Amino acid sequence: MNIVEGPFDHLSETTRLVIRPLRNEDYANWLHEFESRAPSLHQHDPGKIDMSECTPEWFEQLVERHQELARTDKVYIFGVFNKEDGTHLGMIDIATLAREPFQWASFGYTIHNQHWRNGYGKEAVSEVFRIAAEILKFHRLEAHINLDNHASIKLAESVGLQFECVRKGFIYEHEEWVDHLAYYKNL
């Protein structure tokens, strides 16, 4: 199933957000917001990240990798931007798990910690459901969440995701296989 013809440039707008793939001209904004992150606020928040290797050339390659992942229907990666001033707020990705006959994907979301508690995550994830169904033609989306990531669990439940199960030894993190909660939504 070929969803993307040419460059993947889908743009969605919500009340306060623009959600679209990164572009080369986003570099300064993107870098500034990563460099402006507060120190880690909990164990699932990376906080400040060393951005010293993230040159404009590196960023151009990142944008091209994102485009290639979309062209091959593997992962669709979106920047989340403030509609009013264009500030880069975070990222959302939708990863294809299986196409026919399932139309099944997982998704992840992150908002820079300096922008937390403004409802941006909830607004962005709600729009991702529409993008996944109408643009990318998925039927089912899943979020895989660490057992103790209470903020992510709260967000998932607030946008209508349903708890399905605990997946044992599901993902390799911090040099061990860890359990994750599986939340889903049929679109």
In short:
The protein has 187 residues and is of the alpha+beta class. The chain has 4 helices and 8 strands; from the N terminus they run E-E-H-H-E-E-E-H-E-H-E-E.
Task: Give a description of the structure.
The protein is an alpha+beta fold. The protein has 4 helices and 8 strands. The longest helix is centred in the middle third of the chain and has 16 residues, at 56-71. The mean pLDDT is 94.
Oligomeric state: single chain
- Computed over alpha carbons, the radius of gyration is 16 Å
How do the helices and strands follow one another from N- to C-terminus? EEHHEEEHEHEE
Strands of the largest sheet, in order across it?
Answer: 1-2-3-4-5-6-8-7
Number of helical elements: 4
Give the class from helix and strand content and strand pairing.
alpha+beta
Please give the largest β-sheet. 8 strands, mixed
Key phrases:
187 residues, alpha+beta, eight-stranded mixed sheet, 4 helices, 8 strands
